[in-house]
Every structure is written in C-alpha cells, then in structure tokens.
Amino acid sequence: MAKETVWKPHTPEFDEAVEVVSMSLDGAMVPMRGGVWREAMVGCISLYDGEGQRLHSIYLGACAQ
Known about the structure:
By secondary structure, the chain is mainly β.
C-alpha cells in the first residue's frame, strides 16, 4: 500500500480475449532487525486465454504494520 500512490501496475492490451482471471494470496513471517518478526503478504493476479495460456501476471507485495 505504501507504493500504491507511485506505482501503477500496467496491463497490456491483448490480441485475444481474457477468459479467466486467477487471484492468489500468501503470507510468511519474516525476521527483521532487532529480533522482530513481521508478516509479509504477497498476491498475484493472472490473466489467461480460453486455452489456458497465461497472458499476463501482476504481482503485489506488502509488509504488515
């Protein structure tokens, strides 16, 4: 979210139609300086054509406060 105002994901135009949109989310506890652990979250949005071929993916990540 911190980069949301300056980073704008770009989705290209496709020759074929996007038939399937897939979204995933995952997280992990990551060690930080000073012995502190914080949760890092990652997400992915993938676009596929009618034959199941991936056309494009957008990856996002953030560290929870």
